Amino acid sequence: MVAQNVIFGIIAAAMALAAIRVVTTSNIVHAALYLVVVLGGVAALYILLAAEFTAVVQVLVYIGAIVVLFLFGIMLTRAPIGPTTNLDNDQRGIALVVSVFLLGLLGAILVDAYGKTKLGEDIAVQRTAEVGTSIFQDYVIPFEIISILLLAALIGAVVIARRD
Amino acid sequence: MYLNQFLFLAAFLFCVGVYGVLARKNGVLVLMSVELILNAVNVNLVAFGAFHNTVVGQVFALFVIAIAAAEVGVGLAIVLLIYRNKHSIDLSEVDIMKG
Amino acid sequence: MLENAWIIPALPVTSFFLILFFGKRLPGKGHELGIAAVGIAFILSCVCVSQWVAKPADYHPPAAHEASATTGEASAAPEGGEEEGIRQPVVHEVTWFETGDTTVKVGTHMDGLAVMLVFTVTLISLLVHIFSTNYMHGDRRYTHFFAALSLFTAGMLIMVTSSTTLLLLVGWEMMGLCSFMLIGHWWEEQKNSDAALKAFFTTRTGDIGLLVGLSILFVAAGNTFEISTINSKALSGDIAHGVVLAAAAALLCAVIGKSAQFPLHTWLPDAMAGPTPVSALIHAATMVVAGVYLVARLYGVFWSGFSIANGTVNPLAAVGGITIIIAALLAFVQSDIKKVLAYSTVSQLGYMVMALGVGAWTAGIFHLFTHAMFKGLLFLGAGSVSHAVHSFDMKKDMGGLKKHMPVTFWTFVIGSLALAGIPPLAGFWSKDEILVGASENGYKFFLIVGLVGAFMTACYMTRCVYLTFFGEYRGHGHPHESPIAITAPLVVLGVMAVVAGWVNFPAHAAEWFGKWTENEVFAVAGVQSHKFAPGLAFAGFLMGVGGIAAGWAYYARNWGPHRLTERSKPALRGYVFLENKYYLDYIETDLVVGSIKGPIARGAYWINQQILDAVVNGAATVSRAVARFTYDYIDQKGVDGIVNGAGVGAEEGGSVLRVLQTGRVQQYAAFLFGGVVLLGGALILFA
């Protein structure tokens, strides 16, 4: 539908710009804020794709927790507030080349594979209950492992960063 | 809507994230670029899940989010440690493994 | 005893070692061991003789292509007793060693010829041993003399009893060595050691022919040393005629050397420098006949090789004939009694060789037998004379000894008459058989030679006897008869000189010697034996008597053209020619040896130093240059360069690649993603 395409276009443009600004800005805090834009755009895409639960979780976890974490990290590492001279290292050129070629590669593959594939007219909304059921019935083991992983990460972060 | 537009967008985010990982000096910025990459993957997953009319894409995306959170936590802890030892988090100065 | 005939040579070998180790401690200084060993050997040889004579003569060897009418037919079954066969030889062999498919055996081959020679050698050796106990008494090397005599006897016995040419060669060489040792017994005087060396080298020159001939025969007869095999193969035509001729010619060289034939006879007169018993044993009766024995033993080879049956002049007869005449001529101009006897020996050896050359095999062997007796007697007689007057010079120190030494005189006369060929003494019978053989087999020329030789023999022996025993004593000592140890052997040999000829008395029933020594070669090759010819016998007798008469007239009565050399130049030159022994010594020593020693040796040395050494040195120089080049360029720069280069390359490569290891993680990540891009691209493009 036209409306969905237009919305998608706007969101995509915003995200693309913001992403580029994340990796090119010379202000760290600005980079974090641009990241917020990207993450919000991702959430909007989820809504577009009728994955509402995931969109909410995205906002909550990513923007709510992870970006805050980033900001704390910036603060604790005494990152210079305001524009600094250079946040890029010497291999900008190589990195650019590599990422461009990677983009080209992926683009070629995608065109080749999914050139004409269309999503359905009306994407069926997956109800949250179905997501929950799927997690706790079909994928309960990965769920449990993820909880252990989070525990390990928690303990690990504490151990690594504590002052002794 | 074409499936490809979501996939292209995801690819674009991925490549930007790769550029960021390779080109940024500050450790925190590198971690941010890693978040970009992970989000690109998530978009891919959910797009395919919507395409196939299955809930698995979302489930997998949720798992990735959880893992990303854990990873950022540990990653920042490491960056803090580097800062504590060297008083800077310029990654190009971390070259103890230089051969 | 015939089967165990190896004991006979083993006895003197044992006594040689025993005398060397224990001789000096014994009361007789070793002569007891020597006499005991040879004595027992002589007794055993008599046993052999009696056993051989008693053997029945019923063996008919398988005949060959040259069977003739008079002797054995080609039959395996004897025909009713008409034609007598021969006595089969007794062969007793053991295997010495085997290599590949050749088996080399050693052993004894006793037939009439071997038995006869064993008897002769042990008899003469025993008598010489007894003679030497008195003659060599008080000598500076008495014990070694007897040891050498034993070894020599052993060598000769080994040679005559051997069944293989290899063992024959061993005995031959042993005799050559002992001859050298014994001639040079008083080597402190230069003359004696020179004579010993001359004897050894001259016979050695002939021995080259022996080795060549035996090698040819070994190969031609199918890799075997067996004498009987060689003989039968040579006669049956299994060996090509050219090969047999070559072997016979080579063996003829050995005969010329060892048996002192022209032109290698020069060593025998010089060998008289040794003690007289040595001359009697070795150079009259035994060693010099080794060559004659070789021809007689391998007669099949010579018969086929030189085609003796054809009646044409062959080298064997020619050499013998020449030797008879030139040696007899030389005997006339000697003043040393031993030298007269030496030339006489050379001449008689010529008779034996000529006899074998004209096909009178039995005659030649018979003459060997009788000659041993009377020549040994003559030499021992000369020894007795010198023992009395302490000199060998007839003209200066002898004369008129007839009164002082009767036993020596009479035995010497018997020996001379036997040598001259006066019946009924031994020499007459054997010499006559030679003449008969020469004429009957068609060698008329050699018959003339034999008759002339007989005349000359009688003549010079008469001169010798006259100068020694007749006239007035010209010396300065007090000659007396020699003791019994010397005269007893003289008497024994005197008796043998008389009776030895009767062994082959020419009546059909009594031609014992001929029958006893007939062997397979005879039967197969058809060697003829002939009847007594009264005409020729009388001619020989006349020659002998005529020679004695002429000699007596010229020397005793001084008739005839004396002092010819003073009046006539040609006669003087002829006399000088004879006195210088036909200048053969000069030719051999100065021309042949001198040129080899001088210019040829210098030339060879020059070639060696300049050319051969240049090649070797050049090779060495080239090798050194190559080595230096290899070291400097190939090893140091090339190989080491590669090795060092590998090291340097690794280091530099490492230094270059080290740049990649910056330690910065982001750079590693860049490579990672870059690699992914490349591989992904490759995957898309090519898959």
Fold and architecture overview:
The complex is a heterotrimer of chains A (164), B (99) and C (687). Chain A has helices at 2-24, 28-48, 52-76, 92-114, 128-138, 140-161. By secondary structure, chain A is mainly α. In chain A, helix 1 runs antiparallel to helix 2 (28-48) and helix 2 (28-48) packs antiparallel against helix 3 (52-76). Chain A is globular and about 55 Å long. In chain B, helix 1 (3-23) runs antiparallel to helix 2 (27-52) and helix 2 packs antiparallel against helix 3 (56-86). Chain B is mainly α and 99 residues long. With 687 residues, chain C is an all-alpha fold. Chain C contains 28 helices and 2 strands. Chain C has helices at 7-22, 31-54, 112-135, 142-161, 165-183, 190-220, 227-236, 241-258, 267-270, 276-285, 290-297, 299-305, 315-331, 337-357, 361-389, 394-397, 401-404, 406-420, 426-440, 444-469, 484-499, 512-517, 520-525, 534-556, 564-567, 569-579, 584-658, 665-686; strands spanning 90-99, 102-110. In chain C, strands 1-2 form a two-stranded antiparallel sheet. In chain C, helix 7 (227-236) runs parallel beside helix 12. The longest helix of chain C is centred in the last third of the chain and has 75 residues, at 584-658. Chain B binds chain C through residues 18, 21-24, 30, 91-92, 94-99, and chain C through 658, 661-666, 669-670, 673.
What keyword list fits this structure?
heterotrimer, A: 164 residues, mainly alpha, 6 helices, 0% strand, globular, B: 99 residues, 79% helix, elongated
Blueprint (SSEs and pairs):
The complex is a heterotrimer of chains A (164), B (99) and C (687).
Chain A lengths: L1 H23 L3 H21 L3 H25 L15 H23 L13 H11 L1 H22 L3
Chain B lengths: L2 H21 L3 H26 L3 H31 L13
Helix pairs in contact in B: 1-2, 2-3
Chain C lengths: L6 H16 L8 H24 L35 E10 L2 E9 L1 H24 L6 H20 L3 H19 L6 H31 L6 H10 L4 H18 L8 H4 L5 H10 L4 H8 L1 H7 L9 H17 L5 H21 L3 H29 L4 H4 L3 H4 L1 H15 L5 H15 L3 H26 L14 H16 L12 H6 L2 H6 L8 H23 L7 H4 L1 H11 L4 H75 L6 H22 L1
Antiparallel strand pairs in C: 1-2
Helix pairs in contact in C: 1-2, 1-4, 2-3, 2-4, 3-4, 3-10, 3-15, 3-21, 4-5, 5-6, 6-8, 7-12, 8-11, 8-12, 10-15, 11-12, 13-14, 13-20, 14-15, 14-19, 14-20, 15-18, 15-19, 15-21, 18-20, 18-21, 19-20, 19-24, 20-24
